[in-house]
Amino acid sequence: MQPACPPLEWSLHKTTASGHAGCTSCATPACVRPPPRNSFGLSTVRMHTSPTPPLDPASIFLGPKAENADVFEALLLEAFRDHVFWRRNFHPEDGFSVHDAERRAPGFERSVSVLREHLMELLGELKGGVPFFSPRYVGHMNADLTMASLIGYFATMLYNPNNVAAEASPVTTRMELEVGADLARMLGYPADRQWSHLTSGGTVANFEALWLARNVRYLPLALHWAAKALGRSVSVQRARGDNVDTQQLGLWDLLNVPPAAALDAMDRLVSQQEDPRRVLEVLSQCSLTGLGFQEFGRRVTSEFGDSLAAGVVLVPATAHYSFNKLCGALGMGSGQLVHVPVDSKFRMSTDALWKTLVRLEEQKQPVIACVSVIGSTEESAVDHLDQVVALRLRAQRELGMSFWLHADAAWGGYATALLRGSDGRRRTLDDVRSSCAPEDWPEAPVYQALCAIGDTDSVTIDPHKLGYVPYPSGAICFRDVRVRSLISAEAPYVFTNDARDVPDLGRFILEGSKPGAAAAAAWMSHRVVPLDADGHGRLVAESIRGARRLHRILDAQDWSPFRAVVMPRPDLNIVCVAFGHPGITSLEANNAFMERVHNALSSSGGKPARALDHVVSRTTLRAVEYGDAALPHVRALGFSDQDYHRAGGLTVLRCTVMNPMAWQPRGRVDVLSAFAQTLRTALADGLRAAAGTALPQKA
Ligand SMILES: Cc1ncc(COP(=O)(O)O)c(C=O)c1O
Questions:
Q1: Active-site choice (153, 218, 471, 493)
Q2: Residue 380's closest CA among 661, 659, 655?
Q3: 488-502 pLDDT tens trace
Q4: Residue 199 C-beta-side C-alpha neighbours within 13 Å
Q5: Pocket lining for ligand 1, CB < 6 angstroms
Q6: Of 358, 391, 543, 624, which residue is most buried, by most CB within 10 angstroms?
Q7: What is the pLDDT of residues 311-349, one digit of tens each?
Q8: Which residue, among 178, 180, 220, has the nearest Cα to 460 in the 3D structure?
Q9: Cα 377 to Cα 650: distance, rounded to the nearest angstrom
């Protein structure tokens, strides 16, 4: 039998609902000692790292009818009571500050009534929210959340840790780094090199990726000037593979050093000096961040007699709208965002990408970054990332050109869980297919693209999307931790822990104060639902089953008198469909018709979301970004290419099938079939409303 822990100084604690508050070091039933920690400071008590028997998705969520309310309630109460014990055991000698007599005074009781009333008001107001938990919701990227993440969030929120600095979050900063490491491992980054952390969302994660990409791309120029200022020389590996002293290189070569080679050269320069801080200081003074674009450009012109051509960012036509904002915010200019055409499956065309690279090389315009999307926002399309990786090598070899490679896997990143067995081994295409059976998923190109994620420089992946954890929880993973030094900041009042093993996150990231509770939520969720084929892979596979089934239902129905144009079977789990009618004779009118149908199936029509039978979203495939990729669908609706360009785009309904329980009928209603029925009614109502409006005629 284990010895009992020494008694706490003064203990008001009681046993919890389940009779035990967490101590695993002794056998005393009421002991509230925290569980043992490993050298990283984290609890060594794991929930299920590899659950057997296999995880049942029904056990993961509260459930559409709160079927798991008993478990949820007991654990929330446990978390709250445990927090109470913690307060009472912190300097118990202080005694109580709020006295019983005071609690019975009229002023006190009034305050509590006000609190209660406002809570009731809030709870009432919240019913005006959106029922994301229901399988009837196939709107945006929302669904039920894991109980683990919600309970983890609630439990930690009571402690309010701030992950800006380890001093304010000794536990949750470590958890955040562990979540980052878990994600990086799942994506295939080297464990001893990666640098990953949480962000408020995918937008900020993409911002950080482009911010660091920009700094790494301009690093060789900074090294060139810093080495000169320090009276040193440093060589760098050019895109074509040879090593040359930076002083011997021209502007084009300096702007096309492969990212890893630029970081290696920085290491070499730093290691030449006795005082590495001094090198980093000079380097920072010569960097784009230190100088700003105007002064940086002026130096380039004065030294190379050539102005600094604007660097571009290449994204597929399907890229998230935030890239526009980001290029503007980073001073690169949103006009330098180049949309590469996509193919008929909405995947970035690698032929078009190659042609774009050749054209840019001829114009001597450097590429800061190329972004591949793994799960596009509108269609869940997965770019041919493996081919883009190969194309970068070809561009280095044949064009002397390199770039930063970023995967925006904000939506689809969790699908890589399907590539890993619970023993950590890479699963074959057949293994992955067996997880999704009887559906024929994934196609080989999707599998190959997912396998290539580890060959990128950075990846955005959002736990608050397909990770089923609450906001705010985006994540950015970098392949190489050295990038950190290109943005590190000093703030002596808050960052003081150089000697400790846990870094102060605020030094190395864009954001400052950030919720440790969000880190704990993701950490808990990943412990309960592991990042492998049996855990998160299972949830992704079930959601894909749902999407495929919905695709079949939409495709097989006789919609007459309407014409349904169902977009290609999705790479992941978002299904898009457009409807037309012979009486609607212009694409503008058809787009307006789709808007009306969407309004009937979303709260944007003015109806409260709780009163809706089903909820869907919509989008417009805009000609300016999608180019020809939308034309087959425009034609299938009976409109011409000219109609498309005149209307500016094609409006479609977008069904995000995220709920892992929607694919098979579970309750009394088969929600996916019922959705098709509701859609039929909305189409008929939308058409009647259209008949009452003067429709623009076909031009
Ligand atoms: C592919 C992709 N990237 C980035 C984002 C932005 O994520 P967030 O809304 O968390 O900032 C989204 C959001 O839908 C997305 O789908």
A1: 493
A2: 655
A3: 866 666 566 555 678
A4: 25
A5: 141, 201-203, 206, 320, 322, 373, 377, 408, 410-411, 462, 474
A6: 543
A7: 999 999 999 999 999 999 999 999 999 999 999 999 999
A8: 180
A9: 16
